[in-house]
Amino acid sequence: MAIEVRIPTILRSYTAGEKSIEGSGSTLDELFADLDGRYDGLRERLIDEAGLRRFINVYLNDEDVRFLGGLSAPVSDGDTVTVLPAVAGGAR
Amino acid sequence: MLTISAELRAKIVAHARADHPDEACGVIAGPAGSDRPERFIPMLNAERSPTFYRFDSLEQLRVWREMDDRDEQPVVIYHSHTATRAYPSRTDISYASEPEAHYVLVSTAEPADEEFRSFRIVDGEVTEEDVAIEPE
C-alpha cells in the first residue's frame, strides 16, 4: 500500500493529467520529496522556503494539515492526501 | 459566455447583499463538462472581511468532494466587492486557480443597483464575457 495523493486540475500538468498519484514517506515533507523525483516541479508548487504555500490547502484524510503540524505531519500507508488551491481573492 | 438562470443570479445578488459590507463568496456547481450552473452553494468567507475573501478550508474540502462524487465541477465561482467595481483585482487574478470556471463578480457598492459581471481568469489573463440570463 502507498499514500494516495489527489491532484487538482490546475496541477495535473505535472502529473501527465493524472487525478491521483501515489507516493511514500513517513511525513508530508518526505512524501512531497518522494513525489518530486517522479513529478518534476510539483513540490515547488506546493511548498516554498517558509513551508506550505499560503494559498494551497493540503488535507490529510479529512483534516487540514495546518492543524496537524504542516510538513512534519506524520503520514502512513493507506492515507489520502488531497491538494486543493485555496479559493481566495478580494478587492484589497 | 455565461448562461445563468434569473433565479441563480438573484441568489448570488441576495447573498452579496446579505453579507455586505463583508465580501460574500460561493460556488454554483454544474454537471462536469456541461458549462451549466445549477446547484447554488453559498460558502463562508473565512476572512469575514470587507476587502478579502477565502473559502473555509474544511468547507471547501467537503464541497469539492461532494462535487467529485456527483460528477460536477465549479461552473461559477462568485464573490462580491463591497466598495469597488465588479472587476477582478490583482489579488483575484493571482489566486484564480480554476481555469474552467466563470468568475462572477458582484459589486454592492451601490445600494440600489448592483453590478454583475463574469470573467475567465486563465494564467493571469482576464477576459470579460457576456452574461445571458435565462428567464424563469
What's a concise summary of this model?
The complex is a heterodimer of chains A (about 90) and B (about 140). Chain A has about 90 residues and is of the alpha+beta class.
Topology:
The complex is a heterodimer of chains A (92) and B (136).
Chain A: E1 3-6, E2 20-23, H1 28-38, H2 42-46, E3 47-48, E4 51-52, E5 56-60, E6 63-64, E7 80-85, E8 88-89
Parallel strand pairs in A: 1-7
Antiparallel strand pairs in A: 1-2, 3-4, 5-6, 5-7
Chain B: E1 2-5, H1 6-19, E2 25-31, E3 39-43, E4 53-54, H2 57-69, E5 72-81, H3 90-95, E6 102-107, E7 115-122, E8 125-129, E9 131-134
Parallel strand pairs in B: 1-9, 5-6
Antiparallel strand pairs in B: 2-3, 2-5, 6-7, 7-8
Description:
The complex is a heterodimer of chains A (92) and B (136). Chain A is 17% helix and 29% strand. In chain A, strand 5 and strand 6 (63-64) form a beta hairpin. Chain A has helices at 28-38, 42-46, and strands spanning 3-6, 20-23, 47-48, 51-52, 56-60, 63-64, 80-85, 88-89. Chain A has a 5-stranded mixed sheet, with helices on one face. With 136 residues, chain B is an alpha/beta fold. Chain B has a single domain (2-134), classed as Cytidine Deaminase, domain 2 (3-Layer(aba) Sandwich), CATH 3.40.140.10. Helix content of chain B is 24%, strand content 38%. Chain B has 3 helices and 9 strands; from the N terminus they run E-H-E-E-E-H-E-H-E-E-E-E. In chain B, strand 6 and strand 7 form a beta hairpin. Chain B is globular. Chain B starts with a strand and ends with a strand. The interface between A and B is medium-sized, with 19 and 34 residues. Strand 8 of chain A pairs antiparallel with strand 4 of chain B.
CATH architecture descriptor name of chain A: Roll
Could you tell me the CATH topology label of chain B: Cytidine Deaminase, domain 2
What's the total number of strands of chain A? Answer: 8
Question: What order do the SSEs of chain A take from the amino end to the carboxyl end, as H and E?
Answer: EEHHEEEEEE
**End-to-end gap of chain A:** 45 Å
Query: Which structural category do the helix and sheet elements of chain B fall into?
Result: alpha/beta
CATH level 1 class label of chain B = Alpha Beta
Taking the alpha carbons of the first and last residues of chain B, their distance comes to 19 Å
| Helix fraction of chain A by DSSP (H/I, runs of at least 4) | 10-25%
Unreliable residue runs of chain B: none
Our estimate of the beta-strand percent of chain B is 35-45%
Structural class computed from helices and strand pairing of chain A = alpha+beta
- Low-pLDDT ranges of chain A: none
Share of residues in helices of chain B: 10-25%
Number of helices in the DSSP assignment of chain B: 3
How many separate structural domains of chain A?
A: 1
